Amino acid sequence: MISPLQLFLIDPVVMARIDAAAGQSGIPLYDLMERAGRAVAAAALRHYPQALRFVVLCGGGNNGGDGYVAARVLLESGAAVAVHHLGDAAALKGDARTAFERSGVAPLPFGDYVPVAGDVVIDAVFGAGLSRDIPGELAGVIAAVTGAGVPVLAVDLPSGLCGRRGVPLGASFRAERTVTFMARKPGHLLMPGRELCGALEVFDIGIPSRILVAHAGSVAENDPLVWREALPRADMETHKFRRGHLTVFSGPAHATGASRMTALSALKAGAGIVTIAAPKAALDVLSVTLTAVMNTPMDNGDDLQDWLDDGRHGSFVIGPGFGDLEKARQFVSLIGDKSVVLDADAITAFRDRPEALFERITSGTGKFVLTPHEGEFARLFPDLATGSALSKIEKAQAASARSGAVLVYKGADTVIAAPDGRALVNTNAPASLATAGSGDVLAGIIGALLAQGTPAFEAAAAGVWLHGEAGQRAGIGMTAEDLAHAVRPFG
After folding, report:
1. DSSP secondary structure of 338-359
2. d(CA 367, CA 139)
3. pLDDT at 57
4. What is the pLDDT of residue 16?
5. Listing from the earlier edge strand, what are the strands of the sheet with 199-203?
6. Is the pLDDT of residue 270 over 70?
7. Average pLDDT of every residue of the chain
8. Closest CA to 284 of 331, 250, 323
9. What one-character-per-residue DSSP string does 13-61 give?
10. Residue 316: which of 348, 283, 342, 296 has the closest Cα?
């Protein structure tokens, strides 16, 4: 059973503060290093019993210290071990020097390592705190190891991978497995870091939970533990209006497919009533393709205002297949005090004046969720999109704070962010979700949860997770129609 503490993603700078706080609390920091190194050695022996030799690559910091502990324990177990050190081992300081001296090994020059069949590399060169491009000597060894296909067990994070952004700093090992300590870092879950880490194991080296909680912050993995208590609960007296009425806006007659997938997924996600509001010319198409979903004519702002006069119409999805960008801007202005999911064309409609959208969001009382993919994100937030110094999490947080909306920054590592700084990274989405119409289904799920009264951040987070579950259920080769039919409420 996973605990909420295990969901936290700790920035490498904050993790250094946690280590320092542990030392200040009276815990000998070398003891933490000893436990970390032993955990690495245990993982190596458990997962690679066939290894002919463990090659431990050590750097000059505490990550290298972990490596020297692991090398010593592996030697004590009877394994064949070689150690290569990047730089001068005599320059090691503090606990890392203690680990080196206690290991009893004589490290070989780093550049002399030539991978051979039967090797297992234990990568203890750089940890999660790396913030600069790797040196050329390490890049050469990475290339040689990659070319030889030698398995890599990374300590904390594959060397060369940024622990904050999850991107290679020049180059990075591609680990088969990674052992990290106490908590995961953003780079473990953000792409391409998630793939470069391989199978990830988090080992408790004994830092008290109270210290982790005091420093943890507001970034975590997306998981039902975060939002399940905010979801609506069905009772014996519920009825369709209590379960919410969601309105999905449609485009013209030739482009109703997106709105139909949005509407179907909303019904499957638990909305009590779903109505597609469409131009009159599209009603014939909708009437012969919909059963449980209702439809209503809506050609202009006057039609929408009449619809809004009914207080039961409080939640909307606009954008999928909508087409008319000018009308999208007008409709968004009119529904600004409602619960709204803005996707696709409703996002693109504001690319020339994003501040007009943000003003409408922040000046009203509505709950807004924006669901941009990478290209749509760049249309609303061009400066953030090109900010290579920022992680995807940081970009989403900044965009949410600027816009006033909950932001779902879509992708293989979808990030959900709230204006107050909370952020979640989603991990359950299969690659098969990369198909046309998948985003329309996601918009419908989030819209359904908003219609049922779920707060915007929790609705977005739950919607993304349920979308991933539906993708797993639908399987490889699915279409968006398959995905919509695979949607289920939580629980």
Report:
1. SEEEE-THHHHTTSS-HHHHHH
2. 48
3. 98
4. 95
5. 108-109, 81-85, 53-58, 119-124, 152-155, 177-181, 199-203
6. yes
7. 96
8. 250
9. HHHHHHHHHHHHTT--HHHHHHHHHHHHHHHHHHH-TT-SEEEEEE-SS
10. 342
pLDDT > 50? residue 152: yes
Give dist(CA 308, CA 336) in Å, integer: 11
Nearest to 186 by CA among 174, 176, 200: 200
pTM exceeds 0.90: yes
Dist CA 383 CA 22 (whole Å): 39
Among 137, 148, 40, smallest CA distance to 87 is for: 137
**C-beta atoms surrounding 297 within 10 Å:** 13
- Alpha-carbon distance of 277 to 306, in angstroms, equals 12
pLDDT at res. 243: 77
Helix (H) or strand (E) holding 416: strand 415-417
Taken in order 469, 2, 23, 88, the sign of the CA dihedral is negative
What was the pLDDT predicted at 364? 83
Identify the residue whose tokens are 């007008």: 330
How far apart are alpha carbons 34 and 322 in whole angstroms? 59
Q: How far apart are CA 161 and CA 327, in angstroms?
A: 45
pLDDT tens digits, 216-247: 999 999 999 999 999 988 664 454 556 799 99
Buried b vs exposed e over 12-45: b needs ≥16 C-beta within 10 Å? bebbeebbebbbeeebebbebbbbbbbbbbbbbb
CB 444 within 8 A of CB 467: no
Phi-psi region of 155 (alpha: psi -120 to 50; beta: other; left: phi over 0): beta
CA 115 to chain centre: 34
CA-closest candidate to residue 335, choices 400, 247, 258, 271: 247
Distance CA 485, CA 470 (A): 8
Scanning 349-387, the segments in alpha helix (DSSP H) are 354-363, 374-380, 382-385
Q: What is the mean pLDDT of residues 296-301?
A: 98
Mean pLDDT for the stretch of residues 360-373? 94
Spatial strand order of the sheet with 406-409 comes to 219-221, 423-425, 415-417, 406-409, 367-370, 339-342, 315-318, 245-249, 273-278, 294-297
Q: Taking the mean position of all CA atoms in its chain, how far away is CA 484?
A: 22
Structure confidence by residue, pLDDT tens digits, 14-61? 999 999 999 999 999 999 999 999 999 999 999 999 999 999 999 999
> What residues pair up with 122 in beta bridges, in sequence order?
56, 153
- Can you spell out the DSSP letters for 71-104? HHHHHHTT--EEEEESS-GGG--HHHHHHHHHH-
The residue type found at 307 is W
